[in-house]
Specification:
By secondary structure, this protein is mainly α. The chain is built from 3 helices and 2 strands, in the order ββααα.
């Protein structure tokens, strides 16, 4: 979850100050020129650090959203379990795995 406020805040509620901190908040994850395109599997150390900083920012900044989504998923799972008592995996034929 990319949070646009990361450009202006280095931590939730803590504004970036100075040119160097503002540059650290400039993380391009949306354009084709971004070092973070999904086809790029290796990052330069500074790009990796920026991505890690962004993730470290987003987790506490969106804590309530994450917890709410987890609670909803768990509740759906509980409802599903109540509706279908036998939700175990079907038995596999062991001969399928003999080599």
């Amino acid at each position: 979850m990319v949070n646009l406020t990361f450009r202006e805040f280095k931590a939730p509620g803590v504004r970036r100050e100075g040119a160097e901190e503002l540059i650290q908040g400039d993380v391009d994850v949306n354009t084709e020129d971004s070092p973070y395109v999904t086809s790029n599997l290796a990052y330069q150390p500074e790009d990796f650090q920026k991505l890690m900083d962004l993730m470290h920012y987003n987790i506490p900044n969106n804590r309530d959203t994450f917890l709410s989504a987890l609670r909803r998923a768990l509740e759906r799972e509980r409802v599903h379990e109540d509706e279908d008592e036998d939700h175990s995996c079907p038995q596999m034929d062991p001969s399928l795995f003999s080599f």
